[in-house]
Amino acid sequence: MKMEKKSFLKSLRLRRKVRMVEECTCPLCAEKVDKNEFRNEVFIKEFESSGLCQGCQDTVFGYKVAW
Fold this sequence. Notes:
Blueprint: H1 3-11, H2 15-22, H3 41-50, H4 54-60
């Protein structure tokens, strides 16, 4: 995560979420993220941006139903 983005998110009081992403933990489901789980580069780029694991990306972006 880029320093400017980290600073912005911390200013929004999202320090815990920033720390989770830095520790490769999904901020949505709190599971550890294995970078080998991603299907392609697009999902990796999204992880680098949001910190979401493959499963949460699938749910958020409508690839499968979560509930």
